[in-house]
Amino acid sequence: MNAERPTTSDAQARAGQATIAPGYMSGFGNGFETEALPGALPIGRNSPQKCPYGLYAEQLSGSPFTAPRATNERTWLYRIRPTVAHIGPFEQVDIGLWRTAPCHEVDVPIAPMRWSPVAMPTAPTSFVEGLRTITTAGDAGAQAGMGAHVYLVTRSMEHEYFYDADGELLFVPQSGGLRICTEFGLIEIEPGEIAVIPRGVKIRVELRDGPARGYLCENYGGAFTLPDRGPIGANCLANPRDFLTPLAAFEDTDDESRLFVKWGGVMWSTVLDHSPLDVVAWHGNYAPYKYDLRRYSPVGPVLFDHADPSIFTVLTSPSDTPGTANVDLVIFPDRWAVAENTFRPPWYHMNVMSEFMGLVYGQYEAKPHGFVPGGISLHNTMLPHGPDVDAFEKASSVELKPHRLEATMAFMFETRFMQRVTAYAAQAEERQREYQSYGRRLQKHFTPDRP
Ligand code: FE2
After folding, report:
1. Fold for domain 297-431?
2. pTM
3. Please, which pLDDT band fits residue 6 given cuts at 50, 70 and 90?
4. Interval between CA 349 and ligand 1 midpoint (Å)
C-alpha cells in the first residue's frame, strides 16, 4: 500500500480548516485503515467499550450483512458525533432539476439524441442546486438502473453537506476541478479524472479553480467494481493500484450547518450544530476513491477488425444477470489505431444496452462535427447508430497507416435499461434537434456489377 500523509498538522485538521492537501492510499476495494490522530483507530476490535479520544463508533454498510465475502462492503467510522445526532426533523426541500427513476415525464423519442454543452448558470449555484438530470433508467427503489446527469457548479458549498441514499455517485469532471470533502477524507479531481462516492457517504463539494461542469452517473445498482479481464490476464485496462482512496481527515466545528439527503427521489434537509465530516479514523472496504483515466492501459486489435467496446470498460456495476451490466463506465482514450484493411471507427450498431455518451476533451472519431467537449449524446435501446457521413466517407477511403488518436477522452454510461429523457433535457435549448436525422445523409454505394 502506498500511503502519502496529509501535509498539514493535526491541529489544523482539528480546527476544521479546509486547507489540508489530500493524501491517498493506493488500491481498489482494499481493507483500508487510516487515522488522522495517532491511536484514534481501535486495534483488534471494532466497537470497544470506550473509543479513543471519546469518539463514537459507527458502521456504514454498503452491502447486506450476509453478502458473499467478495461483495461484502462495510466500513467502521470513528467520529466525533454519530450521524443520528442531527437537531431537527428532516423537511422536504426543492430538488430542482434532479430526477430519479422511474421518471416518465415525456415520451422517449425513438431517435438518436444529442445536446450541445449545457450553459453555466449566472447565479451562484452549488453542486446540490446545479444538478440537472438528462436521463433516468430502471428503478431506484428496486436498486436497479441509473440517473445520468450534468452538474454545473459556480459556488462552493459552505456549511452545507449532502448524501445520496438512492445511489452511488460517479463524477466525471469536464471543465474545472472539484474538491470533494468527504467523511473519509479529501478528494481532488480535475478533467481527465473521476471520483466515486459510495451511497450514503456525506460530502461537501467545493470549487478548486473557478466554475465547474461535469457529468454524474447516479448508480442505483450494485457498487462499481473492476471488470474481469478474461484472457487479457492480470494486467492492463484499469489497474487496481491506480485507484486512490483518501486518508482520514476531519472537521471539528460547532457551526450550524445544513445536511441535504436525497432519499427516495426526494430532497430532504435538516439542521446540524456541527460538521458531519467529523470522522477521525476509519477502516474498511466501503470508501470513496478517485482514478486518473489517463492511466487506463487500452487493449485492442493489433492486426485487423474490431474488438467490442467492452475492452474499454473502466468500472462496471454488475446486475444479477452475469455479464449484463447495470451500468458500465467505458472510455475512449488516447490510443493507436493500427488495424489493417479495417473500417476503424465504431461500426454501425444496434444494441440491447443503451448508451449515454459525453466528451471530456478532444474529438470523438465517429462524430467529428457537432459532438463537442461538454456535449452529450444518447443512443437508446435498440436504436441504430454509427459514424456520420463525414466519418464514414473518410474512414472508408483513407490510407490505413498507424494512427494515434490524440488528446481525446470520450466516455459512455452504458446500461441494460432503456433511458428515459427528462422533460428538462427534451426541452433544453442545447438539444440538437436535427441530430436525429444524421443517418439520412449516408449515401447508397451499392455496385451490383462490381464486387
Ligand atoms: Fe453503440
Report:
1. Jelly Rolls (2.60.120)
2. 0.94
3. very low
4. 6
